[in-house]
Amino acid sequence: MSVSPPGHELVSAGIRDLAAGHESEAALVVAMAAPRLRALGIEVPDGGGERPSHRLYELLAERDAGAAHSRYNALVRRMASFSRAAEHQRGD
User: Fold this and answer.
1) CA distance readout (Å), 91 to 25, 40, 51, 87
2) Is residue 90 within 8 Å of residue 40, measured between CB atoms?
3) What residue numbers bound the domain in which 24 lies?
């Protein structure tokens, strides 16, 4: 039985949103991490624009300017945690 790494729901949602052409927090953070995710063998659709990190911050600031910085950092940490756990499961 394989256990999904923490953050797998964020990655799954981001992949779905990218495939559907929807701009969401999940889609943008997955687009930011696409090279690392692809190196792990995860199929990540193209999308997120040229600078998904900037667009993610803008999206977060539009929703709640006061919390944008901490929310951005939390999403990035969650993606890094997922990637590290997935690498560990693979034996990288």
Assistant:
1) 29, 11, 31, 6
2) yes
3) 8-90
Instruction: Give the number of domains in the chain.
Output: 1
Q: Which residues contact 52 (CB under 8 A, 6 or more apart)?
A: 28, 29, 31, 32
Q: What is the C-alpha to C-alpha distance for residues 34 and 44, in angstroms, rounded to an integer?
A: 6
On the question of pLDDT at 47 being above 80, the answer is yes
Cβ partners under 8 Å of residue 71, min gap 6: 60, 64
Does the global pTM surpass 0.85? yes
Would residue 3 count as lying in a domain?
Answer: no
Does some domain include residue 1?
no
